[in-house]
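User: Hello! I'm new to structural biology and keep hearing that structure can be predicted from sequence alone. Could you demonstrate with Sodium transport system permease protein? Please show me the input and the output so I can see what each looks like.

Assistant: Of course. The first part below is the input, the amino acid sequence of Sodium transport system permease protein. The second part is the output, the predicted structure written as tokens.
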Amino acid sequence: MKRIKAMLHGPMGALLQKELLETWRDRRALWMAICFSLLFPVMLAGGSIFMLKKHTEESTRLALLGADFAPLLADRLRSDSLQVDALEEGEPQTLLAGDYDLVLEVSEGFAGDYRNFEAPPLYLYIDSSASSSGRAERHLQERLGALQQLVVQQRVTARGLAPQLLAPWRLEVRDVSTPSRRGAMLLAAVPGLLILTLFVASLATSVDTSAGERERLSLETLLMQPLPGWQVVVAKTLAVASIGWVGALLAIAALVSLMPLMPLAELGIQQATTTAGVVTMGLLLLPLALLVAVVQILLALRSQSFKDAQTQLSILQVAPVMLLMVLDVSRVELEGFHWQLVPLVGQQQWLKTLLIGEPVPVLSLLAGSCVTLLLVAVAVRIGAGALRRENLLSAT
């Protein structure tokens, strides 16, 4: 402890103060971090509201041609979400190009074939290039299927047979998922976006403090000072990680603040995130922020120019999030203890658990965080060795 205080009051403290001051004075990097931190919570809230509005207010418009041949069909098909207009004539292609999602045509001999217990055809016209055609078709198929089942039961009953003969069993679906689990499905993308915030928020600062200082020749002056290389890397890592971590904290605060405005209750989801959970989310992202910062600095130092560093780090910030998305989509089991030790994967799983209001095992959280910090120490040592390279300042 005394050694740390001595370093902070010596050249190391001055260097750290200088790095933090330069980091938080960079308005471009600061605005970039703030804008992205607020962007995805706002988009998530707006997207959930739009989805609910579309689900509740969206209706299907059906044009029924030849309704006179099946007088009861239009009344049987109508519902709150299915609007049926009986038309005497019309061209299906023209109707689909207008205000209708589907066109259903009844054949002229429908009534006679129906009374003779034959299977008269119904012609359904759709425009598969329209975005709403698939939803509208499924909606109509459900209505027609229920009506067809009703007709079959009536015919069987009229002949003195029990309708149960056509249904050897009855399937009843009972959803045992909890509101918190349904919330996990809706909020599945949030952990990846929070992790992406760390990368984006610290991108500009990490490039400027490494490749940028090298091109401005200020890195050469810094390396001439009587400071060990690891102290230089640590000071830069803490400065870069500070803006990335604050960006992630801002994103968490914005997300929690917008949750009351999101229609979670209408979607059957309870807001289960607690204050302790929010604090834990912020703390568990701190080791990852340090790891992201030091890796970005190392990649920027080995780049050949400022633009090359920006390109490499832009790829870096997308690759881990894409990997996490692939693991989610592929349904890989990530709940084992060994997965909690893997950086990024462990943080993703912990964030998912905290978002639905469930506790995180303290042992796995501490073990995973220690592994992340150990990798930070290894990266700092690698960075200190890189600063001793003679060709560092020439970027070759």
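User: So the tokens describe the shape?

Assistant: Right, they're a compact way of writing down the 3D structure. Reading them back into a model, for example: The radius of gyration is 31 Å.
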